[in-house]
Amino acid sequence: MNTMQITTGRRVAGAGLNIVPFVSVDHMMKLVLAIGIERFLKDLAGYIEEDFRRWDVFDKKPRIGAHSAEGVIELMPTSDGELYGFKYVNGHPKNTRAGRQTVTAFGVLSNLGNGYPMLLSEMTILTALRTAATSALAARHLAREGADCMAIIGNGAQSEFQALAFKALLGIRKLRLFDLDAGATRKCARNLAGEGFEIVSCQSAQEAVLGADIITTVTADKQRATIVTDNMVGAGVHINAVGGDSPGKTELHRDILARADIFVEYTPQTRIEGEIQQLASDHPVTELWQVITGAAVGRRDRQQVTLFDSVGFAIEDFSALRYIRDQLARTGLYQGLDLLADPDDPRDLFGMLVRARNPAQHAAARA
């Protein structure tokens, strides 16, 4: 553990203004395990819900993307008027063929008043956790009461996080898994063994959805695909559509959208990237924050088909960074990163180079 002390994660005490707390991948893993994965997911969902309840205070804009035939690199910024946060994230489905992650990310949380970063963090693992926490939070407001069985179609890097979040927030105990790559399904089932699930590995998407109260689609291919067709979705099902998250990339047949009540994070972004890019630009949707605050109705009855068209939004990353910041003082799981210039005189930046060239002379002058 790092021995530096911090106060509420906002300012490093006993160190120069050059030092910024940095949460590495190793520290993130240790932090998650120290808190407990399910407790972490529940707490993180609480932070996301808290920020969704104050939706109006945030700056909101679709993420800024650089798209190519191979994938996308995106920046996701937001601010609540006091703090500023952004995430750098990529999505390159073909990376796995070269032993690389499809998604990698890091993020920064800063003081809006002085512009100084107060946290730099890995967000590859954290994004998987916040995506799962957001999915389960939405389902808690939209799925049928008593739901206990979920189909997960697409058993890659996100699948275990989704399963554990739905267990932590909704009590899901039965999982039906399917992936075109049977090895991915075996991996998912193996990783979740001993976590309290009843797991069935299926041979098709059609088999996976049988008896499921919730259908989670979380595939990675960057293409317009039909993972679930209308005849596969029975009355009362809640669909958690996670994989469709960029222009031209969808997972659900359009007929499902036509008969489902659709809930989104931020409409202007989801129109571009989500399942609803298949629909007319004026097709009615409801933003999740409206359901959380009671401004709109979520599930009306047990027969209603609900769809959470999840693409990920910057406020969720802001919430995740805020949550991590608040864990640092208690856990010490970070390191101090010499990130910012901190001259003796704020007007004398060049003097730092002069003193670095002759450190002994500078030390003697100060003695």
Automatic annotation (TrEMBL):
Signal peptide: none annotated. GO terms for molecular function: ornithine cyclodeaminase activity. Pfam families: OCD_Mu_crystall. Its EC number is 4.3.1.12. InterPro entries: NAD(P)-bd_dom_sf (IPR036291), ODC_Mu_crystall (IPR003462), ODC_N (IPR023401). Keywords: Lyase. Belongs to the ornithine cyclodeaminase/mu-crystallin family. NCBIfam families: PRK07589.1 (NF005762). This is Ornithine cyclodeaminase.
